[in-house]
């Protein structure tokens, strides 16, 4: 059979875009406490006072970005009722910005026209900060709120999270010219735990935690979206609860729940069916889970990628489960080969426990009797080594390891 004509007919979806990540829901369900905390932290702004700096954290897919967008929209709207108040919001996704310098350049460029951008390299950091302070002093606004979304991308290099929230205090931008506030958003708990004391002090005037959703909450969120996304009557009654239960158990992520619902519908559509059934959700579930795991594997830091690489090599030699000292030996060779920092075995043990927490690894404790002491043996958890390899092969930083492969470590 050859190609079939494209057809706009769709018995399943009325508007599938409603299930997309980029779709902004009209209001946020199941987040009343968080929204209240958030709004109350921003209250000084509407009164014309200096903003409090806010650090927002919680796992992926729990509504941090969408809550921020809705609140900022509302703030922009409501400020119109107040004279002498003009709040400008600068929302930057830091995902690919790996240092404070890169974030600072990006922020400077938010204030510049297309012909006047600063390049991403070349200026000393102090000059970039000077540019930023000048723009902030000159800007035609009483307040500038910086939203630094996915700010964990900057890693340990967190100078900007000290400088920016302190811009008024340090006199770099006098508060009577422009009041500056920062909202930092992160889904990495390790990032929050490892913030330096000075950053904690300046950024975290208010900390707001977004916990994962449970199955009941997800059910309401999905229900609201499903009404506009699907043609009336195509969803059998148990579809939404089932998708909510899977996502609730797995991650508590609304994003995952929405993907699952979409995928189930997509399976039904691809088979020219007129109803989405329970079996479609069950079929979609492992697919969504795998893509979620892949994303997570991709997004761990280089040192964790190297640690996983070491496990992968040992697995190929049939040397798993292995002690952390054996994993470390392979890690060390690999890190040197790609010119990465070689961390201590202690750090790698920390990486191993983080990977275990994420469910990528399993650990078994071994006791050698009263005198022998005990040690841990690591192996891959509920993930296929082949998948780990596929992901690692796509990590640019590890390219050399796979190009000239060493067959035995
Ligand atoms: N309470 C909610 N009501 C309706 N939709 C929601 C709710 N929470 C999250 N969503 C939807 O779930 C998806 C993920 O939410 P969002 O992007 O805000 O997550 P996040 O916490 O920023 O995740 P990440 O840390 O990965 O950036 C979006 O499509 C969003 O619209
Ligand atoms: Mg987000």
Please summarize the sheet with the most strands: 5 strands, parallel
Global geometry: globular
Mean pLDDT: 94
How far the N terminus sits from the C terminus, by CA atoms, comes to 50 Å
CATH architecture of the largest domain: 3-Layer(aba) Sandwich
Radius of gyration: 25 Å
CATH superfamily of the largest domain: P-loop containing nucleotide triphosphate hydrolases
Describe the structure.
This protein is α/β, with parallel strands linked by helices. It has 3 domains: 178 residues, Rossmann fold, CATH 3.40.50.300; 85 residues, Helicase, Ruva Protein, domain 3 (Orthogonal Bundle), CATH 1.10.8; 104 residues, Winged helix-like DNA-binding domain superfamily/Winged helix DNA-binding domain (Arc Repressor Mutant, subunit A), CATH 1.10.10. Helix content is 48%, strand content 11%. The chain contains 17 helices and 8 strands. It has a 5-stranded parallel β-sheet, sandwiched between helices. Strands 6-8-7 form a 3-stranded antiparallel β-sheet. Strand 3, helix 5 and strand 4 form a beta-alpha-beta unit. The longest helix has 22 residues. The protein is globular and about 70 Å long. It starts with 31 loop residues before the first helix and ends in a 6-residue tail after the last helix. The model has no long low-confidence stretch (mean pLDDT 94). The chain binds adenosine-5'-triphosphate (ATP) and magnesium ion. The site of adenosine-5'-triphosphate has 19 residues, from helix 2 and helix 10.
């Amino acid at each position: 059979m050859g190609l079939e004509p494209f057809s706009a007919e769709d018995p399943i979806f009325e508007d599938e875009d409603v299930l997309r990540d980029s779709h902004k829901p009209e209001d946020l369900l199941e987040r009343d406490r968080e929204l209240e905390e958030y709004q109350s932290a921003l209250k000084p702004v509407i009164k014309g006072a200096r903003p409090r700096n806010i650090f927002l954290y919680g796992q992926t897919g729990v509504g941090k970005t969408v809550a921020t967008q809705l609140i900022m929209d509302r703030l922009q709207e409501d400020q119109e009722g107040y004279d002498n108040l003009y709040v400008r919001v600068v929302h930057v996704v830091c995902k690919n910005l790996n240092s404070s310098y890169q974030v600072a350049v990006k922020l400077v460029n938010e204030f510049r026209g297309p012909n006047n951008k600063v390049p991403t390299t070349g200026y000393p950091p102090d000059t970039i900060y000077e540019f930023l302070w000048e723009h902030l002093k000159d800007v035609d606004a009483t307040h500038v709120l910086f939203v630094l979304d996915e700010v964990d991308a900057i890693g340990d290099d967190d100078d900007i999270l000290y400088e920016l929230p302190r811009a008024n205090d340090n006199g770099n931008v006098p508060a009577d010219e422009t009041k500056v506030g920062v909202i930092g958003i992160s889904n990495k708990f390790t990032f929050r735990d490892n913030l330096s004391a000075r950053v904690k002090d300046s950024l975290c005037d208010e900390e707001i935690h977004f916990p994962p959703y449970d199955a009941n909450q997800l059910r309401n969120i999905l229900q609201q979206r499903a009404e506009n996304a699907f043609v009336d009557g195509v969803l059998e009654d148990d579809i939404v609860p089932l998708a909510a239960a899977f996502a609730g158990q797995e991650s508590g992520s609304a994003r995952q729940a929405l993907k699952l619902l979409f995928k189930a519908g997509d399976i039904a559509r691809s088979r020219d069916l007129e109803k989405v059934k329970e079996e479609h959700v069950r079929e979609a579930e492992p697919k969504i889970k795998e893509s979620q795991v892949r994303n997570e594997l991709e997004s761990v830091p280089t040192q964790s990628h190297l640690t996983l690489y070491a496990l992968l090599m040992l697995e190929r030699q049939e040397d798993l489960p292995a002690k952390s000292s054996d994993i470390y030996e392979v890690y060390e060779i690999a890190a040197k080969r790609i010119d990465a920092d070689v961390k201590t075995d202690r750090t790698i043990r920390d990486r191993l426990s983080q990977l275990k927490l994420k469910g990528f690894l399993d650990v078994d404790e071994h006791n050698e009797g009263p005198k022998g002491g005990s040690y841990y043996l690591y192996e891959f958890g509920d993930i296929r080594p082949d998948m780990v390899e596929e992901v690692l092969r796509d990590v640019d930083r590890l390219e050399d390891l796979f190009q000239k492969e060493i067959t035995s470590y």
